[in-house]
Amino acid sequence: MKKLISLVKNVHSRQCQVNWSVQVRFLQKDSVSKPKRYKYPSLYDPYGSRPQPSSKIMELSERIASLYPKERKQIKEKKEKTVFDVKLEKFDTAAKIKVIKEGRAFTSLGLKEAKELVEKVPVVIKQGLTKEEANGIIEKIKAVGGVADIE
Questions:
Q1: Domain CATH code at residue 109
Q2: Chain centroid to CA 49: how far?
Q3: pTM beyond 0.85, yes or no
Q4: CA–CA separation, 24 vs 20, rounded Å?
Q5: How many angstroms separate the most distant Cα atoms in the chain?
Q6: What is the domain count for the chain?
Q7: What is the pLDDT along the chain (151 residues), one digit of tens a residue?
Q8: Residue span of the structural domain in which 123 resides
């Protein structure tokens, strides 16, 4: 048992000496030598080279570059609207009760709130609808005698 312990200690001490000598050599070389300075190209891309843009992209970029600044702004401003609001413009006084009932049907308002809403004409009845939903509501309001528009 004693031999085994002495053998392990001996092997361990030799490994420590080897590691220490490697560390000392590394530190000696590092302290003497100067750090390397790398020269990067003026347009350095750390992610590597990228493929050339396609011919369609090049054609579009040339077209956009040839436009006047006002025309470029118009391109940015043209966005297709996806969310619509329904606005009640007016209604027949004889059809007021029917318009209130229809207003209650597609809003979650009570009778009193729906009446107050309809009496505030022109007013936005429902917001954040798709075009199909908005057109459906407008048709229902027109059927009972009201006039509504999409905003």
A1: 3.30.1390.10
A2: 27
A3: no
A4: 6
A5: 113
A6: 1
A7: 556 566 556 655 555 454 555 555 555 555 556 777 777 777 767 777 777 888 888 898 888 888 888 887 777 766 778 889 999 998 888 888 898 888 888 888 888 998 888 888 889 988 888 999 999 999 999 999 889 999 8
A8: 84-150
